């Protein structure tokens, strides 16, 4: 916020940690007057001051008054806060970019498992720092609903820096952009910075997907990005549900559709219940569209973070409907989601028998695969192979099983 040529950027307060609050004024003379207030100044004050001067040099700021209130912010946070403050007073297209750490230079694949994706507010760095150790399949840096409107610009730079500097321990790095068309502006802050997947909220048409996909393609070319960036539209309205297959097939980069039940039930004018009867049609419509398009259907979040039994039951129902993952809003939900989406022993044993029967039929040159008195067709074999792969991926089954 700019008041009398003074800006305030960042977060502060008794419960704020791993962040900083910047008060900046650009002056006509007097050089750089910098006041650093930090509980760890004795240890890190020199490093903070050095980074501040580097950023001032980069943006050619010679005269300024800066109050830098630190609550344990890492350099990627400090840099984002100060850069945004400078740009509020001195708009420009330059970007102060920290190096991309080698731990984040990995790609992900269209058909990898996405049982869990953990939402992290895009303007709250403390939640980003250790998110990867909880081992969700993906983390979502959220630029949409989890960020207050007045903080959207700050969040763009913070998420950009987090993609470059935070070690997420190999999980799929996702960003939820804002609703189209505002989300187009978010793309330039994430596409060049090793994002793996982009979530598109409140999607209601193939045209929205194509516009976003086209902008991503342009940004990839202009920034020499060569790895695949996947898309996961989120369906959150009655119109979106009716157009689910159209959306699912709008781009080859789409790996999944997710459903957002809070907004969907609001659009219907009904209350969301744990039983989910009010959304059963929509969920099945989305699952069917995804299966027809050959992509993953992803269920909505379970919002009661204290009810682990309710979550487990919800996951089992979700799995029985054909969903292949769901969102989570607290790390404690990750293991419950994984455990209950995982194949049970009976499923694994049946899959092993099918895969073995298929292999034996191939060795004998048989065109027909049978298990006992039952004929097995290609979709059944494929599903069994997926179950085996999943069991191995989760450590339930050894890679050396005798199949």
Labels describing this entry:
403 residues; five-stranded mixed beta sheet; Ribosomal Protein S5, domain 2; alpha/beta; TIM Barrel; eight-stranded parallel beta sheet; 15 strands
Explain the overall architecture:
The chain has helices at residues 41-58, 75-89, 152-165, 183-186, 206-222, 238-242, 244-248, 261-268, 280-293, 308-321, 332-341, 345-363, 378-393; strands at residues 2-3, 6-10, 20-26, 32-38, 64-70, 116-121, 138-142, 172-176, 197-200, 230-235, 256-259, 296-298, 326-328, 369-371, 374-376. Helices cover 39% and strands 17% of the residues. It has 13 helices and 15 strands. With 403 residues, it is an alpha/beta fold. The chain has three domains: 2-89, Ribosomal Protein S5, domain 2 (2-Layer Sandwich); 102-341, Phosphoenolpyruvate-binding domains (TIM Barrel, Alpha-Beta Barrel); 345-393, no CATH class. The mean pLDDT is 93. The protein starts with a strand and ends in a 10-residue tail after the last helix. α2 runs antiparallel to α3 (152-165).
Supply the number of helical segments.
13
> Which class of the largest domain in CATH terms?
Alpha Beta
Order of helices and strands: EEEEHEHEEHEHEHEHHEHHEHEHHEEH
What's the shape?
A: elongated
| Total strand segments | 15
Structural class call reads alpha/beta
Percent of residues in helices comes to: 25-40%
CATH architecture descriptor text of the largest domain: Alpha-Beta Barrel
* Structural domain tally: 3
CATH superfamily of the largest domain: Phosphoenolpyruvate-binding domains
Map the helices and strands.
Elements: E1 2-3, E2 6-10, E3 20-26, E4 32-38, H1 41-58, E5 64-70, H2 75-89, E6 116-121, E7 138-142, H3 152-165, E8 172-176, H4 183-186, E9 197-200, H5 206-222, E10 230-235, H6 238-242, H7 244-248, E11 256-259, H8 261-268, H9 280-293, E12 296-298, H10 308-321, E13 326-328, H11 332-341, H12 345-363, E14 369-371, E15 374-376, H13 378-393
Helix pairs in contact: 1-2, 2-3, 10-11, 12-13
